[in-house]
Amino acid sequence: MSRLPELLQTAVTLAATGVPVLPLREGKAPFGNCPQCANNACGGRPNMKSAGPCRCPGVCHAWAAATTDPVVLSSPAWTAAWRRAVTVAYHPGAAGLTVVDLDNAAAVDWARTALPATRTVETTRGEHWIYRGAMSSHNAVRPGVDIKSTMAYARYLGPGTGTMADLPDAVRALAVKEPSPVRPAPHAVVVSARSGNRECRHRTPAFLERGIAMAEQRINEARSAVHTTVYRTFLAVLSTHGWCGCLTDAHVARLFTAAEAKGESPRHCTDAWTNARTRLGL
């Protein structure tokens, strides 16, 4: 039996309370952009980060497609998506909410001692802690913990239990990173390039130069999923060159320049670099 009526009814009910919703396909992923919006043709930002000026009637641009309009939710384009959907998601930030996504038991145990109690929803592997108040979204703020609020989506897994509390400073503090010195340059890199002090294993400067040049080429050749390409390229550079301290601000500036030439903002570059360092424990 089709789950369309069940999913759509859940979506309409949530939307009626002011929570913008969208369908998720297999793999808990949003639907891709339509042909008119593919490859940023509509003017929206790459990788579905924002709807931009696009007014596509379909389920485009991931979280930016979330809506509370019952007419849109039951339109032909959305109905087709609901028929392929496996669950309902929502845009927490647009509803004035923040979800602390605790991905495992250890993360849940940490939250119970570090964060004030609030409404909780069980997930497949952990819990969602939902607070009243919006903030910027951040992944991997600590092991097994993501923050989903503005410019993000979260699965709807039921109303949960407990009384919703106001967003505490303890959650906002998770997103605060130590400031790094800004170099006086047109596109200043606001993160430290030197990531470790292990013994240098680069026998010649040519090894590092070749790595940076290959990274620049990889970014330059990206035709889609630019955000993902930049992050993975930064991750690859750091995993190879980030431990010994040979990576300088000049090298990082070259990578940032290549990314900005593909439409990335300095902030997105900094976030990608910081997330890559966090992933590697640098």
TrEMBL record:
Protein name: Bifunctional DNA primase/polymerase
Origin organism lineage: Bacteria, Bacillati, Actinomycetota, Actinomycetes, Kitasatosporales
Domain DNA primase/polymerase bifunctional N-terminal stretches: 11-189
Domain of life: Bacteria
Pfam family of the protein (one): Prim-Pol
Alphabetical list of SMART domains matching this protein: Prim-Pol
